[in-house]
Amino acid sequence: MPPVAFRRLALLVLALQFARPSAAQPIDHAMASEQWYKVTDDAREQYVYEIGHAAAAGDTVIVLHGGWGAEHSYLLDALRPLGDTHRLVFYDQRGSLRSPAPDSTITLQRLVADLDGLRQDLGVDRVTLLAHSMGNHLAYAYLAAHPEHVRGLVLVGAVLPTAFSMTGPDAAFLAGVWPGADTTAVQAAYTGALAGVEARVIRRMALEGLIPARFAEPAPDGDPELRAALRGLESLSDRDQTRAWRMKFTAVNTCDGSNWRDMQGGQVFYTGTVARQILTDPGYAAAVPTFWPALAAFAGPVRVVDGTCDYTDPGPTVWPHVVDDLHDGRLTVVDGAGHSLWMDKPAEFVAAARAALADATR
Questions:
Q1: What is the torsional sign of CA 280, 281, 282, 284?
Q2: What residues are paired with 272 via a beta bridge?
């Protein structure tokens, strides 16, 4: 892929990485055990939503949504079936949709403090964290700060415990977890996955009539007519631009993007300033190098659930080697699932998540 095309796709995927992965669903009050606002130690209100029940001390699971800057509701339907055996505690992280806060207070350190304050309010000494997407980085940061309060980790759509990059992990991290790895081949797997995302986006838009139908078949890279057609999307109606957004987002987060009609909602569910604040936070940059040492030193169970089409580690390529270096690590791969595994393989995802939680909460 030419550099210009790659940069354009990289920007698209980064933007969508921090957007809303699924639809907001009506809250099922019959199953909800509690909805409440926690007041943080600096007097900010943090929305909390609990479902299910805890039959044992380890059954409380705090769910960390992705983003940075997304919100919790996209995970509700995906994880709701697990409420029959666990107390699932969802919340909107600081600055996200239902937990507004001044930009100046949004730092990784504050997010870690908010999570620990929630743990304390729940009356749980050791908690299991179930994290999706960039929520994994919050889980690693919390583990590094409070290892004594972590019972287990369930990492879904798992971002590696190093600096996030769409061309693969940095060389030092890769060499540490996978001595002798062919870095060129790893990078090729990542760039190939991103090229596949771009192809799915274009094919879906062509099949749905947003660009000429002939582009449903692969066009030469850099085809000027194709690029003109894509620029023309800016002149579409609001309705069609929303459809285009949903197609793009679904193509990024699933294996083929054909179920884009299940991807409701839009950017109103994403607070972009949160991502900007965290990604420019010097404390975040300083914390990232602590993620892998903290995870490698953790003696508790770490369960990773990934799909074969997940662009954050296509294959997966690197996670099998990471898991091998953990004290109690296990990787479950859902074939034919992407970053939002439940959109591609809902039953398989629930089964994998249930097994992972059974281990991580023991």
A1: negative
A2: none
Residue 137: closest CA among 301, 311, 252, 18: 18
The dihedral over CA atoms of 200, 11, 307, 150, expressed in degrees to the nearest 10, equals -160
Q: Strands 87-91 and 60-64, how do they pair? A: parallel
Both structure tokens of 97: 């949709």
Query: How is residue 57 written in tokens?
Result: 């001390």
- What is the per-residue burial (b if ≥16 Cβ within 10 Å, else e) of 256-277? bbbebeebebeeebbbeebbeb
CA separation for the pair 139, 295 (Å, rounded) = 10
* Cα angle value 230/19/140 (rounded, 5°): 135
Q: Confidence band (pLDDT; 50, 70, 90) for 264? A: low
Q: Is residue 292 reached through a cis peptide bond, with omega within 30 degrees of 0 on the bond before it? A: no
Pairing, β 45-52 against β 32-39: antiparallel
pLDDT reading at 8 higher than 60: no
Please give the model's pTM, rounded to 2 decimal places: 0.91
- What confidence score (pLDDT) does residue 362 get? 80
Distances in whole angstroms, Cα of residue 143 to Cα of each of 105, 126, 292 = 21, 11, 10
